[in-house]
UniProtKB/TrEMBL annotation, chains A, B:
Subunit structure: Homodimer.
Keywords associated with the record: Activator, Cytoplasm, DNA-binding, Manganese, Repressor, Transcription, Transcription regulation
PANTHER family membership: IRON (METAL) DEPENDENT REPRESSOR, DTXR FAMILY, TRANSCRIPTIONAL REGULATOR MNTR
Similarity comment text for this entry: Belongs to the DtxR/MntR family.
Entry keyword annotation includes Magnesium: no
Coiled coil residues, start to end: none
Domain HTH dtxR-type intervals: 1-63
Protein name in the entry: Transcriptional regulator MntR
Localisation per UniProt entry: Cytoplasm
Job description of the protein: In the presence of manganese, represses expression of mntH and mntS. Up-regulates expression of mntP.
Upper lineage: Bacteria, Pseudomonadati, Bacteroidota, Flavobacteriia, Flavobacteriales
Source organism of this protein record: Zobellia barbeyronii
Length: 218, 218
DNA sequence: ATTAATATTTAGACAAATCTAAATATTTGT
DNA sequence: ACAAATATTTAGATTTGTCTAAATATTAAT
């Protein structure tokens, strides 16, 4: 599998939202930052190789085999992201570009050893689940912190309100993007929450919780 | 710099034995497993890019800039080899192929963080020195263990006698390829040695020492 | 149901990296 | 110093992945 072929497979996978939906030539072209005519050529090639089902004017989706390739790429990408953050102290938002390169390294032994070194992580630094060696993995959804039930654990991935006061609050309470948050308790009276972040217990109001996005794997 | 260009630069570097000697088209072709005509084309390109000095029929060597590129590649290759052995428990002889891929990853931050994670190693698992960030590095030489002075430390990289009894002796004494050996003392009378391997002190005869290759950085 | 707008494909060209075969230069042996 | 052997380059072709422009198919709108 060529570097370029792998990139197209990943594009089809991601545009299909992990559901392997049929995606259009133009969608792929936009994602890959190429022209539709280039996509048509590549779709024919991927079809011949048995990794994609392509029908003229109808769009393309992955075959069973293509899906396996895509999941392996996603697995490698996310494992490397964990490595960069956990072992090399990269920041949350610095890992993507390098992981795009590292995901193409071909060595099953390398991938599995890395998985082991990292303690078989379930999610990457963006809270997205990491496919297992045999390609199974959970779906992730993004929800506001005040909408999840008690006992839920997830990764903090964004804010709804990005005003200075709110961001200052988060900073003061040591809540940062990429942190894992566990909901310990919810106060019925005012909807305030008791949560755990980086091993510390804190209490936050419903308003705060209504402005924090969590990514949770179901 | 293209993947292919980088491979040619490394080939020129290695054929020049780290001395940046002029190397011939045919030598490069053999090393790269391509045809001489392909090499000619690439040499012209590398010359135009300012990384090599190529003169028709005369051969090629690297420019100052090309040498820098080569040393960066060697640095990355060897750091990844250390990573694979130290962190992922790869064996001595399993690392090369994967490192060939990893050395092309472009991220200065990644390289330097890796260097730090590994504790700024001086040599790779084959005993070859690792260039520093700014391109300085020591040369390594291969010598028989009985020929080095007391106090010398090096990496065990091979055997002269590969008979079963000798290999069995090494195994019994826990001496393996890739191990670091330090010469503590030499007995003048019979030339026997007192050495340290993996934290253990052992004594070996001159005959044993005369059949073990050590790689030492001067 | 036709036309207009949009999406997709085809045809032909290009750059990178390679190859083969032929031409040319250099080196070696006498 | 000259012929033979060897090394190197040139010319022209091929593959991969891309592009533009033109042709064709699909979809949407009246």
């Amino acid at each position: 599998m060529t570097l370029s072929e792998e990139d197209y497979i990943k594009a089809i996978y991601h545009l299909g939202k992990g559901e392997n939906n049929i995606v259009s030539t133009n969608e792929v072209a936009e994602q890959m930052k190429t022209k539709p005519s280039s996509v048509t050529d590549m779709m024919k090639k991927l079809s011949e190789k048995g990794v994609a089902n392509y029908r003229k004017y109808k769009g393309v989706c992955l075959t069973e085999h293509g899906l396996k390739v895509a999941l392996t790429l996603v697995r490698k990408h996310r494992l490397w992201e964990v490595f960069l953050v956990e072992k090399l102290n990269f920041a949350w938002d610095e890992v993507h570009e390098v992981a795009e390169q590292l995901e193409h390294i071909k060595s099953e032994k390398l991938t599995d050893s890395l998985d082991k070194l990292l303690g078989f992580p379930q999610v990457d630094p963006h809270g997205d689940p990491i496919p297992s060696k045999n390609g199974e993995f959970k779906k992730a959804v993004k929800k506001l912190l005040n909408e999840v039930p008690v006992g839920t654990s997830g990764t903090c991935v964004g804010v709804k309100d990005s005003s200075a006061p709110f961001l200052k609050f988060l900073d003061k309470n040591r809540i940062a993007l990429g942190d894992t948050i566990l909901v310990l308790e919810k106060e019925e009276f005012d909807g305030s929450l008791h949560i755990q972040v980086k091993g510390k217990d804190i209490r936050i109001s419903d308003q705060i919780a209504a402005n924090l996005y969590l990514k949770i794997t179901e």
